[in-house]
């Protein structure tokens, strides 16, 4: 039994015309890329049991692509926003005896730093690219430095 974490940086957003950065939607290219990446996640046999997203629009829209594919709801949490809350996110991760797979959709550079902290080493030295997906697992009670880095799926 293990807990799997699928950490995804939001897909490519539109770049111009948005006075409020938090309301910038995904670019059509970003939507297409995320659909491809989501199918790749499914093809590799990952089956998310819950999805958590930053409340910032481009992250929510990225999470919604996964939610549609896996018939899940998106749980928005400020803990994945610009001011990532490591402790709050760690508390979302269930113990491995539940055998669950969580998706976390957030932003650079904080999400990659969180992944590095979970593993306890610099597994993502260049961070996550847009739609980049890091897969981790916990075979014991989740904690910092206790995750195993499984793979990085780059678009």
How do the strands and helices of this protein lay out in sequence?
Blueprint: E1 3-9, H1 28-43, E2 50-53, H2 57-70, E3 74-76, H3 86-92, E4 101-106, H4 110-119, E5 133-138, E6 148-153
Parallel strand pairs: 1-4, 2-3, 2-4
Antiparallel strand pairs: 1-5, 5-6
Structure description:
- With about 160 residues, the protein is an alpha/beta fold.
- The protein has a single domain, classed as Rossmann fold (3-Layer(aba) Sandwich).
- It contains four helices and six strands, in the order βαβαβαβαββ.
- It has helices at about 30-45, 55-70, 85-90, 110-120; strands at about 5-10, 50-55, 75, 100-105, 135-140, 150-155.
- It is globular, with a radius of gyration of 14 Å.
- It starts with a strand and ends with a strand.
- The mean pLDDT is about 95.
Task: Name some characteristics of this structure.
alpha/beta; 4 helices; 155 residues; six-stranded mixed sheet; 21% strand; Rossmann fold
Write a brief structural summary:
With 155 residues, the chain is of the alpha/beta class. It has helices spanning 28-43, 57-70, 86-92, 110-119, and strands spanning 3-9, 50-53, 74-76, 101-106, 133-138, 148-153. Helix 1 packs parallel to helix 2 (57-70).
Determine the structural class based on helices, strands and strand pairing. Answer: alpha/beta
End-to-end separation: 29 Å
CATH architecture: 3-Layer(aba) Sandwich
Counting H and I runs of at least 4 residues, what is the number of helices? 4
The percent of residues in helical segments reads 25-40%
- What pattern of helices and strands is seen along the backbone? EHEHEHEHEE
What about the largest sheet? 6 strands, mixed
Stated plainly, the CATH topology is called: Rossmann fold
Tell me the strand order in the biggest sheet: 3-2-4-1-5-6
Portion in beta strands:
15-25%
Number of domains: 1
Could you tell me the radius of gyration in angstroms?
14 Å
Shape field = globular
